[in-house]
Write a structure and sequence with these properties.
The protein is of the alpha/beta class. It is built from 31 helices and 34 strands.
Length: 938
């Protein structure tokens, strides 16, 4: 008996030891894990998502492979869309050892509950709280299991940019969900140089009367692009009131966030009156790709809603799909949590214990010790759910979010395209583009045609002039000079002039009325600063500015300009004097260098021809004095093609042909220039353009208030002390007439439009050189103003139909100066204009001489073998022989060569006779006799 007793004791101790060891390394999984679910049961989203999460829990618990036998116990509580009740429900969850909470569906409640989740380290998984700010570092235990509104707003901004709209009006509920979503939209629009022109905020508990008041203010704005970011219950009321106010007609664009697609998916066919309110609207729906899992879940949906007793909202939206996947995501994370040795245990929060007072029972809430480990496993889950591939990016957003673009038409709606972060707008599903490189180019962004409000397929312009009774405040320069362009009518508040008539004619072409008031800028005694006038637009003092306002780079950085209605660049104006003809006028066509080079080439060509013709042509032989005269005569007679000497050598003819072509060009140019000098009146000035003016140290005049001063200083680096401000045209004339020596200026730099009007009656001045800037005048509006675009279109129409030219002729084509036909002295013909011809001629001369001397050297070696000259006393003697050979006529050289050949033949014959007769007669004697005999015969 004792042996049996000790044996049992040992068995018990062994089992206890083994059990303790297993629990220390691999704790046993609990049979039940508590999770919470916070929903608003009476809301549209709450009804359908409650069915989805309950179905997910049932599917998980029925499959022991998911959690290894552990069951999920989901405690569902109703937050009733209240932030206060959400806090109460969250506290109740923390009293029941809850390891995670699914929900809430409201971003407002999520902001509050997330603070409790952070304190107690309980992960909070929400499939409907889409506020982008919930992803901040402030809420580490918040997990968004559906796409953030950041991506939805990016899709809307992409559509705004795609249709080339620039301003939108945001209508939203003024809570955390609405404010943060619209702020994100503003950021996304700013990336594409678009903006929100007006924010129409509504109270969360807004009534129809409140919606009416907000929409009345919206109707008074110029933008017709409406973005509605609200809750489903409020969205339909906004559209109903908008239709009542006539704001769903042609010209409007209504873009709703995915609250509208949720209604369309879950509520079934809408009543006809509500459907008409939404006609032509655009909304977004979260895109979930087709899959077998999704198809199976969709096929079960009718049974699930019927079993749950859901009435009125039997449809399924993407919220239901993401709610179902959220529970599966949590189950897989819990399973991995247990696989890593996680233990469901809680500990008291000392800070809550210290704060315990009254009947709040804060010490009943405990910290989940495994919260951080479970949170890490949630973000590491990579699965495929009913919504498709499901995983998180490093910034804790879902991987590759995408949306469908829905157009509400007729009795239903149609899909017109997709948006994805990967490739932007497209007409094919995003998953088909993931295998291709991302392409966000504007040409790749596509959507199918949309039926807009008013049942039109034509893209709305997106804005109208605001119908709020307010007049545009338009600043107009009150000029002291050049009032033909713009000037105030004395004793009135009206203006007249070329610029004013262009503006009024263009604005009358707009398809809508634009009330405006012209406000004088300046005192009328001094020309105002146009740059300051433009700056006042950005400061909000003026809504626009018209007049003689030049379009410059710095100004375009702050305001937007219309199409230029007149071209006007900077020019230099200076005094000119008439240049009369004199006895030496025939020398003016060419510069001195041109005359010198031309004369030198006459001599060079004549010399080259003489060298090439000297041994062949008798016309180029004779005494030295005769040859010099021949060279000079031949050279200059080619100017008139009157040379008496003929060329017989091939090289000489080639050189002469090229030279005659050069002479022809020079002669023609000289004749044309001389004719112009003698027949057209000329004006001359020491200043030839902006370059020569910059290089001097003389004073320069400019128009007071013009941008010219800054341009001369900053761009041309002219010293400020040289610049003299001038106000009136009379000041221009006086300063130019006095000149630098009498306190005036050497020249005036101003815009061509002013200077042409100034010179129309002042013949003693002229524009010198070319226009050295290219710009124009335009009307200034705030940046990206749609009115500027429409005014540009109107100006183009005026230009095409000739009206702009008629206005120009009316105001600016007065009595012209009597010397309009005079011309400023042009530059004389420069050497560089003919350098190519001279180069070709010089090259031809060089090559001809080279070939000639090579041939002479070969002939010399042939006629004077080295053996014959080996007896020369010095090298100079041989050189003298060469020059004698070159100077000798070629015919004489050939005759002497022939005689030598005959002599050589005679010597060979004597040698042969002596060899035959066998005699020993002295060869020199026989040679002497033969020479004598040869001489006698000759």
């Amino acid at each position: 008996m004792m042996r049996l007793f000790w044996t049992l004791i040992l068995i018990v101790l062994y089992n206890g030891y083994s059990s303790e060891g297993v629990n220390s390394t691999h704790p046993a999984r609990p049979k039940v894990v508590n999770i919470g679910c916070m929903l608003s049961f009476e809301s549209l989203v709450g009804k359908i998502t409650k069915v989805a999460v309950e179905a997910a829990v049932e599917d998980i618990n029925s499959n022991p492979d998911v959690l290894g036998g552990t069951k999920l116990n989901m405690i569902t509580l109703d937050s009733n869309s209240s932030g206060f009740l959400g806090i109460v429900e969250a506290i109740r969850f923390m009293e029941t050892d809850t390891v995670a909470i699914v929900g809430p569906q409201s971003s407002v409640i999520a902001h509050v509950v997330s603070n409790i989740a952070n304190e107690l380290q309980v992960p909070l998984l929400s499939f409907a709280a889409t506020d982008p700010t919930l992803s901040s570092l402030q809420y580490p235990f918040f997990v968004r299991t559906s796409p953030s509104d950041m991506f939805q707003m990016a899709a809307i901004a992409e559509m705004i940019d795609h249709y080339e709209w620039r301003e939108v009006i945001a209508i939203y509920i003024d809570d955390d969900f609405g404010r943060n979503g619209i702020a994100t939209l503003a950021d996304q629009l700013a990336k594409r140089r678009c903006s929100i022109s007006y924010k129409a905020a509504m109270k969360p508990e807004a009534t129809l009367a409140d919606a009416r008041d907000v929409l009345v203010q919206v109707a008074l704005r110029e933008s017709r692009i409406m973005v509605v970011h609200t809750y489903p219950s409020k969205g339909l009321e906004i559209f109903s009131m908008a239709r009542y106010l006539g704001m769903t007609d042609n010209g409007y664009v209504w873009i709703a966030t995915h609250w509208l697609s949720t209604i369309l998916d879950t509520s079934g066919p809408l009543p006809p009156d509500k459907k008409e309110n939404l006609e032509g609207a655009i909304t977004l729906r979260i895109h979930t790709p087709r899959s077998e899992l999704k198809q199976k879940f969709v096929s079960r949906w009718s049974n699930l809603t019927r079993e749950a007793g859901v009435t009125g909202t039997s449809g399924m939206s993407t919220y239901a799909l993401y709610a179902y996947d959220t529970v599966w995501l949590l189950a897989r994370a819990i399973n991995e949590f247990f696989n890593q040795g996680g233990n469901v245990s809680f500990s008291k929060d000392p800070r809550l214990t210290e704060q315990n007072s009254g009947s709040l029972n804060l010490d009943s809430m405990s910290i989940f010790n495994g919260g951080k480990l479970l949170l890490d496993n949630i973000f590491k889950v990579n699965m495929t759910g009913v919504t498709g591939p499901y995983s998180f990016t490093p910034d804790k957003n879902l991987f590759r979010p995408a949306f469908e673009v829905i157009n509400v038409v007729g009795t239903g709606f149609r899909k017109v395209g997709y948006w994805s972060e990967y490739s932007g707008l497209s007409i094919v599903p995003p998953e088909t583009l993931y295998s291709k490189p991302p392409n966000h180019s504007s040409s790749n962004q596509q959507l199918h045609s949309i039926i807009w409000p008013g049942q039109t397929t034509e893209k709305p312009r997106g804005w109208v002039f605001p119908n709020n009774g307010r007049q545009l405040k338009i600043g107009v320069p009150n000029r002291a000079s050049f009032r033909e362009f713009v000037g105030k009518v004395p004793g009135t508040d009206s203006f007249r002039g070329y610029c004013i008539e262009v503006f009024t004619t263009a604005i009358n072409l707009l398809p809508y009325a634009v009330p405006y008031k012209l406000i004088a800028f300046g005192d009328g005694h001094n020309n105002p600063d146009d740059t300051e006038l433009v700056r006042l637009i950005t400061a909000g003092v003026y809504d626009a500015a018209i007049g003689d306002i030049a379009i410059t780079t710095n100004r375009t950085k702050t305001v937007g300009f219309t199409q230029p209605y007149i071209e006007s660049g900077l020019v230099v104006v200076a005094p000119v004097k008439q240049q009369n003809s004199n006895a030496w006028a025939f020398l003016r066509p060419f510069t001195p260098r041109m005359w010198c080079v031309t004369g030198v080439f006459f001599l060079i060509v004549g010399t080259v021809i003489w060298i090439l013709e000297h041994r062949l042509n008798d016309d180029f032989r004779g005494p030295p004095s005769k040859q010099i005269v021949t060279v000079l005569w031949f050279s200059f007679s080619t100017l008139f093609t009157a040379q008496r000497e003929n060329t017989v050598s091939t090289l000489g003819r080639i050189v002469l042909l090229i030279w005659l072509f050069v002479v022809l060009i020079i002669n023609s140019s000289y004749t044309a220039s001389l004719t112009s000098i003698l027949t057209v009146q000329k004006l001359s000035s020491p200043i030839t353009g902006i370059e020569s003016l910059v290089n001097t140290k003389e004073p320069i005049g400019y128009q007071l208030g013009s941008f010219v001063r800054n341009y001369l200083i900053q761009e041309l680096h002219i010293d400020e002390s040289r610049l003299v401000p001038l106000n009136l045209p009379e000041d221009y004339a006086r300063a130019l007439k006095d000149g630098p020596s009498h306190g005036g200026v050497a020249a005036v730099v101003d815009e061509r439009a002013y200077m042409e009007l100034f010179l129309s009656s002042r013949c003693q001045f002229s524009i010198l050189g070319q226009e050295f800037t290219k710009n124009g005048w335009g009307f200034a509006f705030p940046r990206d103003s749609p009115l500027a675009i429409d005014m540009s279109t109107a100006i183009l129409k005026l230009s095409e139909n000739g009206e702009l030219q008629r206005i120009h002729d009316k105001w600016l084509s007065g009595i012209a100066c009597t010397s309009q036909n005079t011309k400023l002295e042009v530059d004389r013909l420069q050497l560089k204009s003919f350098s190519g011809l001279f180069f070709i001629c010089g090259l031809a001369c060089f090559l001809a001489l080279l070939i000639y001397f090579v041939m002479i050297a070969c002939h010399y070696c042939q006629y004077y073998p080295k053996s014959e000259s080996s007896g020369e006393s010095s090298r100079s003697g041989r050189l003298q022989t060469f020059f004698s050979f070159v100077d000798e006529k070629e015919e004489s050289v050939r005759s002497r060569s022939k005689r030598r050949q005959l002599e050589a033949t005679s010597v060979r014959s004597i040698d042969q006779d002596a060899s035959i007769n066998g005699s020993r007669i002295d060869r020199s004697e026989i040679y002497s006799n033969r020479v004598v005999s040869f001489g006698e015969s000759v």
